[in-house]
Amino acid sequence: MESRGSVPARPPSYEGVWRFTAPAVDVSVPQARRAVRELIGRQGVPAHDDIVQGLLLIVSELVTNAVKHAALLSPEVAVEVAIGAEWIRVSVEDNHPYRPKALEADYAQTGGRGLLLVREIAREAGGACDVEHTASGGKIIWAALPLVPGLPGQGAAPGVTSPRTDPSAP
Predict the structure, then answer these.
(1) Residue 26 pLDDT > 50, yes or no?
(2) Is the pTM of this model over 0.70?
(3) Quick check: 87 and 122 in contact, CB under 8 A?
């Protein structure tokens, strides 16, 4: 960003943090995906199409996991989208205390690879993802992707933080 004289540079108009909640039911998965897609479009986020598609797949996987595995202790899930000048981060929070781990590819299993997929999408885009506990005993699973794809496997750029560390700067 540039600044002329003493006038400070303004952040891009698409930056911000948005949060919505949904019941932990199956119909919330496509609704969350649609809400995130509409937000990106409405804000005019200059994200590469591959990044948007990866992010929407991540939203689907994370909300599906919350619906399938946390609904008993968390009848509602929260989805947060934080958009910065160069990054977009999505997180899904529920009140279930179990902190899942990404499984390795086991082709004999019919499920259980959602977090592996999320991790790989983030890694290939040059982003990051993690699972953290909340103060209330639940968890947040987040993924941050650059608006423009990075080189495969380049890893996360400095400044990608957890949703609770600095929600205004993904």
Answers:
(1) yes
(2) yes
(3) no
